[in-house]
Amino acid sequence: GRGQVCTNSAPNGCPAPGASQTDCCLVCSTPEPTNLLDFPPYNIHNAFGNLGTKTMAPSATHYNNVTDYDAHNLYGLTEQIATNKALTDIRGKRPFLLSRSS
Fold first, then answer.
1. Which helix H or strand E contains 29, and what residues bound it?
2. Is residue 57 within 8 Å of 39, Cβ to Cβ?
3. What is the pLDDT of residues 7-33, one digit of tens each?
4. Contact 68/60 with Cβ under 8 angstroms?
5. SS3 of 14, please?
């Protein structure tokens, strides 16, 4: 749904043992309006509503309870670090890299 946060109710696999293949393991709820990750103090005028609508909610948690807000750009950062190292090794001088966040 629009602006909802969903969690897996079957941590050992979905569908849960004894459930049919069509049973949904997601339990969805609307985040609290006081949650600053999903409702930041700035308003970006998202056309679809809340910041987490049609994408992973910023308050979603990954392994070791790291929020998506904190982990969102790690892939891009590590790709930039690898590119910087490769270009430095190949060219022997510091490269100019321009990247963007999505």
1. strand 26-29
2. no
3. 777 777 676 677 776 777 777 777 777
4. yes
5. coil
